[in-house]
Design brief:
binds magnesium ion, 251 residues, four-stranded antiparallel sheet, binds adenosine-5'-diphosphate, alpha/beta
């Protein structure tokens, strides 16, 4: 479903992802762990088509974009990027909801503007997605009147309303009050159970242990270790993975 080959990403002179390759099969849940600054967000943003990259290729389903295409951006290449973006749902640490729109408006916006669905169809879909994230009845509320956990669940509903082929989560619970984290993780857990393909950067190790098919440890812009959770937690091979897990599990 997702295939990243030899991805190279630089900010100016600084290389933040070097020769990174990974594959996510349909229905798989991959959790990405690693210290701050290791390149987790950059990787997710590249896969979502939000961030230019300099080398390698990213494919999601039938959509495929290379670093060279990002540089040129002729009409055909912009179409490849568009194809990538509509296949990937993104959920960010800071929700990024439109503050002036209602909950329902936030969820309907993409389907109307990007997929050109009729309003009635977009609304039907938005209501269904609100049910999925356990927020039925929140349609007319503004983001500012919601808790962080509720806002994040609206953000998940908004991503799902585009019917993406996969959803990428970038530390989705890191900005939340502890008491609202569980509701967001519960929604993510049920999405995983329904067979959604997911790539999740998170420090929630109990979620990783329970839900992930595989954990990737990223450090310095490379995947230094990859294993199923039981193996990764019981027997981390790389010294930096051991150190990282010891720190994070001690919190
Ligand atoms: N817009 C940017 N401009 C320059 N450097 C950036 C930018 N975004 C991220 N970086 C750098 O890229 C590296 C990887 O960052 P990031 O992908 O955010 O890591 P993580 O999500 O693992 O914390 C860091 O060194 C960070 O400082
Ligand atoms: Mg990050």
């Amino acid at each position: 479903m997702i295939r990243v080959e030899s991805l190279q990403k630089r900010f100016g002179e600084k290389t933040v992802l070097s020769d990174l390759s990974l594959e996510v099969k349909r229905g798989e849940v991959l959790v990405i762990i690693g210290p701050s600054g290791s390149g987790k967000s950059s990787l997710l943003r590249c896969i979502g088509g939000l961030e230019p990259f300099q080398g390698g290729t990213i494919a999601v389903g039938e959509a495929r974009v290379s670093g060279a295409e990002w540089a040129h951006q002729s009409r055909g290449e912009r179409e490849h990027l568009r194809q990538l973006r509509i296949r990937v749902g993104m959920v960010f640490q800071q929700f990024n909801l439109f503050p002036h729109m209602t909950v329902l408006g936030n969820i309907m916006e993409g389907p109307i503007q990007v997929l050109q669905l009729p309003r009635s169809e977009a609304e039907r879909r938005a209501l269904e997605m609100l049910g999925k994230v356990n927020l039925t009845g929140f349609t007319g509320r503004r983001p500012a009147s919601l808790s962080g956990g509720e806002q994040q669940r609206v953000a998940i509903a908004r991503a799902l309303a585009m019917q993406p082929e996969c959803v990428l989560f970038d530390e989705p619970t890191s900005a939340l009050d502890p008491e609202t984290v569980g509701d967001v993780l519960a929604v993510m857990r049920s999405l995983a159970r329904e067979g959604m393909t997911m790539l999740v950067a998170t420090h929630e190790m109990s979620f990783a242990r329970e839900v992930a098919d595989r954990i990737l440890m990223v450090d310095g812009g490379r995947i230094i270790e990859s294993a199923p959770p039981a193996e990764m937690f019981a027997n981390p091979k790389h010294e930096r993975t051991q150190l990282f897990l010891r720190r994070i599990l001690a919190r």
